[in-house]
Amino acid sequence: MERAKRVGGHADEDAALEARVALHFGDSAKLKQDAAPVLAAPIARAIELMSASLKAGGRIFACGNGGSAADAQHFAAELVNRFERERPPLAGIALTTDSSALTSIANDYSYEQVFAKQLRALGRKGDVLLAISTSGGSGSVVAAMVAAREMGVAVVALTGRGGGKMAERLANSDVHICVPHERTMRIQEVHLLVLHCLCDGIDTLLFGDKK
Fold first, then answer.
1. Is the pLDDT of residue 166 over 60?
2. CA 142 from centre of chain
3. Is the CB of residue 178 less than 8 Å from the CB of residue 124?
4. pTM of this prediction?
């Protein structure tokens, strides 16, 4: 009887799951639409800042933790390899990929310094740091921003939830792209769209408009 009840309940469960999935799609789409007029201007400024750096021989460094680390690596890969067109490779470096550097810094100093020490070693004035954190409060990302400020490296902060501590560290010449939402997965979904906008814009400014 209990087994029959569970089997008979599958249709209702499937319908509930489908409705739940549809709700995620709707929420994500609505946030993207609502965020567009808020984020278009800072994204455009970030594109201009990054493009100018690359054109002058600079490099774009990216960092973040967890899902934001994956985003940093995704962005760097799109620059180095290609986005949607054939063009020369661009200098994008994710500070999240060198396991020996990450673990030695975390072990000998603190995890908070894992990105900052790499940036101090590899970065130079005129480069750009893409600092990613959904909360805006990641200590290791904030420390990288502090290092960037001291080195003359510009910062593009990609955040959510108001920007947290990262917003407090930004200079007037930096760019803040803050997703107007509180939920981590929704913020991450918009972050991915922002990264694609950055890649498309950089290609457009450096190599011309692709129809």
1. yes
2. 14
3. no
4. 0.94
